[in-house]
Amino acid sequence: MIPAQLLDKFRVLSLDRVTRIETAWIRLLHVDGSTGERPSLTRQIHRELHTIKGDSAIIGEHALQHLAQRLEDLLKLSEQQGFDVSPELEELITTAIRALATLLRPDDHASGELDLPALHARLDRALA
């Protein structure tokens, strides 16, 4: 059993990471590719997602771990497309980022509205 204090700290730190991921993702979509900012933003998102994925595995939060992994995969796909992504893929990645935040707030009423299996199915289709 994970001590409540440790779990709370994990959630706070991970929510901060999700905020940084979402901010970087939005910038990434709107930055001019010639500025050289994309590689830095991409590395930041990868690093934050990788940390959430690893920390989630250690804590035993496998839903978070799996979602972070799928987001890493989608980021790689977006990168391969030169971040010229369809509106559908942009919305899916944004939705998945927000789902991470929802999972990190178990007392949030929105967590009951999150259809994780449907989201995973959408992620899997996008990666197929």
Could you please describe the fold and organization of this structure?
With 128 residues, the protein is mostly helical. 77% of the residues lie in helices and 0% in strands. It is built from 5 helices and no strands. Helix 1 packs antiparallel against helix 2 (37-59) and helix 1 (4-30) runs antiparallel to helix 4. The mean pLDDT is 91.
Highlighted features:
128 residues, mainly alpha, 5 helices
Please describe the topology of this protein.
Layout: H1 4-30, H2 37-59, H3 62-80, H4 87-104, H5 116-127
Helix pairs in contact: 1-2, 1-4, 2-3, 3-4, 3-5, 4-5
Q: Pairing-aware structural class of the strands and helices?
A: mainly alpha
Helix proportion: over 70%
Mean pLDDT: 91
Number of helices: 5
Order of helices and strands: HHHHH
Number of strands: 0
The main sheet comes to: none
Amino-to-carboxy terminus distance: 36 Å
Uncertain runs with pLDDT below 50, 5 residues or more? none
What percent of residues are in strands? under 5%
* Spatial extent as radius of gyration: 15 Å
Shape: globular
Write a brief structural summary.
With 128 residues, the chain is an all-alpha fold. It has helices at 4-30, 37-59, 62-80, 87-104, 116-127.
